[in-house]
Amino acid sequence: MPNSIFEDKINKDLKIEPRDEMPDGYRSHLIRQMSQHAHSEIIGMQPEGNWITRAPSLRSKMILLAKVQDEAGHGLYLYSACETLGITRKQMIEELQTGKAKYSSIFNYPTLTWADIGAIGWLVDGAAIVNQVSLQKTSYGPYSRAMIKICKEESFHQRQGYEIICTLAKGTDEQKQMAQDALNRWWWPSIMMFGPHDKDSNRSEKALNWKIKRESNDSLRQSFIDKTVPQAELIGLKVPDDKLIWNEKTNHYDFGDIDWEEFWNVVNGKGLCNKERIEHHKKAHNEGEWVRKAAVAYSEKKLNKKVA
Ligand code: BYC
Questions:
Q1: Residues 246, 188, 101, 72: is their CA dihedral positive or negative?
Q2: Which of 60, 94, 153, 205 has an alpha carbon within 20 to 30 A of 170's alpha carbon?
């Protein structure tokens, strides 16, 4: 039996575009993943936004502001890319606010000190880049193109975070302790961002066959660990994992067991900040209602003029 046009394109590593035929499962898988990704960018603004008014200098405040605005932009590209699959922005927001759609577990942890802003840039954006560089080669054209643009900005974010952590690590004993404390609290949640181990990742097989995912959760996690441990060592910080050791045979770090109970609790709404994040999103969304109404009124007015 001949391959469908869709299968042919996937086999030849060509991009699937919005008007192309695609299996329903492919479309719904992408809507789930891309909307989750967009929501993560938007909810991810909250833990960082918490520190804009308390940034320790004008320079650090400007950089943090720019970073948080970048995250809003990433959310918007991804919502737009997802809309090409036939879901509306309104539906996506409803799914987020009612808990039907997930967002990354990492954003349910609180930012307690300025060092946490460093840890987010260094570790969370660092983990996101590893995942997103791989997603640049995803099979859906609009998603792939959004990733290319997003990755350029994420690498600036990773450097911004590492710079904050380096400064603290080279500072007073108290500042070094702040950096270490942030690493202690953010390390494991960052490792969890990559999702369950491959053997427990029930979405992976299809996603890899459809070339939505290009690498597995475990291989991306490993590459993040291999990159990040030397960065911690370079500035005299200790990764909070007693089982972490370089393995000469595999050329990778071996690492300790991940607390999956904590991961699933956070994913299922029982993290430290889940409730607060959604409540805040609802409040901001309601407060922005007038902007949406004004934008629609303006475009309707323009349309009416054209028709007349
Ligand atoms: N958090 O079969 P699996 C950023 C869920 S934000 C919550 O492996 P999949 C940034 C998963 O959805 C970057 N849930 O699934 C922003 C599935 O549940 P459902 C965010 C998670 O999809 C601001 C179930 O567990 N990046 O960069 O093959 C400031 C089984 O998992 C998580 C993306 O969203 C998690 N961590 O693989 C700073 C990247 N992990 O839906 C930075 C795009 C797993 O079946 N997404 N689950 O009920 C992906 O690459 C993939 O969706 C994942 C999961 C690797 C996350």
A1: negative
A2: 153
Please give the full DSSP string across 63-130, using - where no structure is assigned.
Answer: HHHHHHHHHHHHHHHHHHHHHTTT--HHHHHHHHHTTSS---GGGGS---SHHHHHHIIIIIIHHHHH
Cβ(131) – ligand 1 distance below 6 Å: yes
Asked if residue 223 lies in contact with residue 214, where contact means CB atoms within 8 angstroms, the answer is no
Among 292, 156, 182, 295, which Cα is nearest to 237's? Answer: 182
Cβ atoms of 134 and 215 closer than 8 Å: yes
Whether 33 is in the pocket of ligand 1, judged by its Cβ within 6 Å, is: yes
For ligand 1, whether the C-beta of 155 sits within 6 Å is no
Q: In this predicted model, what pLDDT tens digit does every residue of 108-120 receive, in sequence order?
A: 999 999 999 999 9
Nearest to 96 by CA among 13, 157, 31: 31
Alpha-helical segments (H) within the chain: 5-11, 24-43, 45-49, 58-83, 89-97, 114-119, 126-135, 141-169, 173-192, 204-209, 217-234, 260-265, 274-287, 289-307
Whether the predicted pLDDT of 298 surpasses 90:
no
List, in order, residues 6 or more apart from 59 with CB less than 8 Å away: none
Tell how far the Cα of 102 is from the centroid of ligand 1, in angstroms. 8
Is 68:48 a contact under the CB 8 Å cutoff?
yes
State how far the alpha carbon of 230 is from the alpha carbons of 64, 224, 246, in Å: 25, 11, 11
pTM attached to this predicted model: 0.95
Q: Which of 77, 203, 266, 270 best tests ligand 1's pocket when mutated (most atoms within 8 Å of CB)? A: 203
Over range 39-62, report the average pLDDT.
97
Instruction: In whole angstroms, give the CA distance from residue 97 to residue 70.
Output: 22
Ligand 1 atom nearest the C-alpha of 48 is 29
Q: Does 39 sit in the ligand 1 pocket, CB within 6 Å? A: no
